[in-house]
Design a protein that fits this description.
This protein is of the alpha+beta class. It contains 10 helices and 12 strands.
């Protein structure tokens, strides 16, 4: 039996191969015990808590830590054997690649979890998550790029020239893409400062519409007339932008002009008439009403009220109802609205009486 165990194949005795297999099986058994006992109990405990970080830790252990341990079992069992220099080098390179891969995978998973946790605490979290897809993708590219440089350095490649070239190239790209970088920074401003979000109705200059998409370089707005308006992010952050989502009520100022022949007692009635009409409306809040000016052809009253709804259709319906009631009430009270008129005096040479003609 001893002679059999001491037989050598590929530089190792059969006993050495048995020891290597034993190490591998032992590690597998320990990992399985860890999964069945420790992880299962941690999972039951995590299900009872309200936080999600413990669930994330369990997923990270299963997807990253456990695979590394499995590879560690292969590595330890293989290194217990007498390997050739080339086989040892291959094993070392493979170890660096595997460990780097799972570490970067753990980092990116942590990034995704952080983003989801952040958006879950925000208003309109689903919309925020859509906005963050671009940032998440860019961050992943950067992380994997750094990991690749780290991997090449650990594999013995001279990356100093590559890094220097990337630095010079990065400066050249930055100079050539100033507008793109400006829009990128404006994107971060929009995301963190939140001047507007997806679904908001905004007005920029003489253009208005609903925010449909917020990208790294451009933001797209769906206009009321149906077409899509495309703005660079820099244009939006540097412009005076009206956001109507935060609107809680709408202010309405309007003028009423009556003819100069209106009796004084009727003039006194006008503010009370209009006040009663506005107060009767369910979604309106009367502010003030005054006899404001003597116009060229009318006595002008100014009234102010608020429509207690941000909805534009409700605002117009309320204004319509108030205008109709004012018109009917004025007609009932015999109060005439003024319209532009001009008095023309005609001097008749054959008569001592001047003719007066009213021209509308």
């Amino acid at each position: 039996m001893e002679d059999f165990l001491n037989q050598i194949y590929f530089g190792n005795t059969i006993l050495k191969y048995i020891e290597a297999i034993g190490i591998f099986i032992l590690v597998l058994i320990l990992v399985k015990i860890f999964q069945l006992i420790v992880l299962r109990r941690l999972k039951k405990w995590a299900e009872k808590t309200k936080t999600t970080i413990d669930d994330f830790i369990l997923i990270g252990i299963k997807k990253s830590v456990v695979p590394i341990i499995y590879y560690g079992a292969i590595f330890l069992s293989a290194r217990s054997l007498n390997l050739s220099d080339s086989a040892t080098s291959i094993l070392d390179v493979l170890s660096i690649v595997v460990v780097t891969f799972f570490i970067i995978r753990l980092i990116t998973s942590t990034l995704d979890f952080s983003i989801k946790s952040y958006t879950a605490k925000q208003d309109a979290g689903d919309k925020k998550a859509k906005q963050l897809k671009s940032i998440s993708a860019s961050a992943r590219i950067i992380i994997w790029g750094v990991a690749l440089v780290f991997l090449l350095d650990n594999l013995g490649f001279d990356i100093s020239a590559v890094i220097a070239g990337l630095g010079i190239g990065g400066i050249a790209v930055a100079l050539a893409a100033q507008s793109i970088l400006g829009d990128l920074f404006s994107y971060f401003i929009i995301f963190f400062d939140r001047p507007f979000e997806l679904g908001d109705y905004v007005k920029v200059g003489d253009k208005n519409g609903t925010i449909e998409h917020i990208g790294i370089k451009t933001t797209r707005i769906r206009a009321l007339s149906g077409e899509q308006l495309v703005f660079s992010n820099t244009d939006l952050t540097s412009s005076r932008l009206h956001n109507f989502k935060k609107l809680q009520k709408r202010r309405k100022v309007f003028m009423l002009g009556v003819i100069y022949e209106t009796p004084a007692e009727k003039l006194k009635m006008i503010p009370d008439i209009v006040k009663d009409i506005i107060t009767e409306e369910e979604k309106s809040d009367y502010d003030r009403g005054h006899f404001k000016t003597f116009g060229d052809f009318s006595l002008n009253f100014e009234f102010v009220y608020y429509v207690l709804s941000p909805d534009y259709a409700t605002y117009m319906d309320t204004q319509h109802n108030i205008n109709m009631k004012i018109f009917n009430k004025f007609k009932e009270e015999g109060i005439e609205f003024a319209y532009p008129t001009q008095l023309v005096y005609v001097n008749n040479a054959d008569s001592e009486v001047n003719d007066i003609t009213t021209v509308a």
